[in-house]
Here is the input.
Amino acid sequence: MLAVSCVSQSADDPLSGLEVGERPDPEVPDGWVRVRLRATALNHHDLWSLRGVGLPADRLPMVLGCDGAGVTDDGREVVVHAVVSTPEWTGDETLDPKRTLLSEKYDGTLAEQVVVPARNVLPKPAELSFEEAACLPTAWLTAYRMLFTQSGLRPGDRVLVQGAGGGVATAAIVLARAAGCVVYATSRDADKRERAKALGAHEVFESGARLPEKVDAVMETVGKATWSHSMRALRPGGTLVVSGATSGPDPSADLNRLFFLQLRVVGSTMGTREELSSLLRFCAANGVRPLVDGVAPLAEARQSFARMAGGDVFGKLVLTT
Ligand SMILES: NC(=O)c1ccc[n+]([C@@H]2O[C@H](COP(=O)([O-])OP(=O)(O)OC[C@H]3O[C@@H](n4cnc5c(N)ncnc54)[C@H](OP(=O)(O)O)[C@@H]3O)[C@@H](O)[C@H]2O)c1
Here is the structure.
């Protein structure tokens, strides 16, 4: 099968370890299913793997990819849930200390085929195309859990989304708007700010700019570059939900503000099978669709990776087989 693999790792030149080529078809273990992928999508996670973060070198070569939608051997159209928990684990899969994401221990979705535990596929709603469905299991699921499980937001509440161009951030803007929140977003780039507004943000600001009012919750994936602004933006008792640190993982915690204003800082990672099921229903029922920046054949994955590494992306990059 054709696959996109990480064959070596480099912090400075991540694309040097990317290989697009033939790999053996996977075996299907008992209790697992094969999905012949129709569409898959890139995430920043794939770049972290190429940089040597989260993927030990002794597991290479590894097929990359967490997002995918396709057809099982028995003909079901499915979406892949990328969080693989241990077989004996029950409940929230993201809380299993031994959980792993596709492409960390088991080969991922940037291929013509992937094998996953049977419980890691969900029916693809007929309303969503394979390309649209393939965008949902990672960035969109992460945004869904941040907003609707971790933040305590209710319709009418005010939310700030930092770094409007990212996959998680664009998802958070669309989902928060559809759920009836007042949505503020920041971006360093004027063009991205305009596009964030077109997506559903009520008002957009330069990174670090003063907001017209304090917000109930902040969705943070940028990290060091926006952290102190996120802390300043919150009303007393507000909640900062953080799921990533693209600009660096070492924010100054602003401890005085944290305790004096009784803020809550909540970490969030991916989402459960149940949350993915709800997200799929949410999109199918409400006409909400992921924002796709580009679609290319799997064989041209290198160009898409180069775009993601360059940061000039607004929404998801999809690869089709
Ligand atoms: N925990 C999880 O389950 C999970 C799931 C998915 C993603 N993530 C993580 O979340 C983060 C976001 O991933 P993503 O794929 O959505 O997007 P991304 O491509 O990493 O970009 C996020 C945004 O960060 C902003 N940004 C980057 N560097 C910046 C800087 N120096 N100063 C200010 N802003 C900066 C950019 O916004 P502007 O250009 O608009 O300013 C960019 O659009 C990643 O670190 C990823 O690993 C975590």
Notes: The pocket of NAP is lined by residues 43-45, 48, 138-139, 142, 163-169, 187-189, 192, 207, 221-222, 225-226, 243-247, 269-270 (CB under 6 Å).
